[in-house]
Amino acid sequence: MNAYLPALAGGLLIGLSAATLLLVNGRIAGISGLVAGLAQPGERQLSDLAFLLGLVLGPPLFAAMAGHWPLMRIEASWPVLAVAGLLVGFGTRLGSGCTSGHGVCGLARLSPRSLVAVLVFLATGMLTVALMRVAS
């Protein structure tokens, strides 16, 4: 059971953060929308920046508290990661949101659009894994 506690704690913190942002600011915690909000001058720019800084500062805070960095293994090269990031950014704009916006916040609000988006995300991911296994 201990192996699942960090993931459980992380999920609870994500849900708490999304719920707090919605209750306090009336905003959905979709990361692509928050990043897009940085380009729009106004009062929401500061709160968007604060939320995003919290995401970026999470791993260093973890390292300071735990005494080590989170374990990660990334096998792709920097150019592949850069292209993947651009494709994800394009997809979030095309899909009117990202997995955090649709999956965490949209489904919690029973949004039909988010349900369709999440089903498409999952189906595409499963198809990609199946094709990668056949190709290798």
- What is the succession of H and E elements? HHHHHH
User: What's the Cα radius of gyration?
Assistant: 17 Å
- Taken from the alpha-carbon principal axes, the silhouette is globular
Strand coverage percent = under 5%
List the total number of helices: 6
Q: Can you give the mean pLDDT?
A: 86
The profile of the biggest β sheet is: none
Percent range of helical residues = over 70%
Structural class: mainly alpha
End-to-end separation: 34 Å
Taking pLDDT < 50 over at least 5 consecutive residues as the criterion, the unreliable ranges are: none
- What oligomeric arrangement do these chains adopt? single chain
Report the strand count.
Answer: 0
Describe the protein's architecture and organization:
This protein is mainly α and 136 residues long. Helix content is 76%, strand content 0%. The protein is built from six helices and no strands. It has helices at residues 5-25, 31-38, 44-66, 78-94, 99-108, 112-135. Helix 2 packs across helix 3 and helix 5 packs across helix 6. The protein is globular. The mean pLDDT is 86.
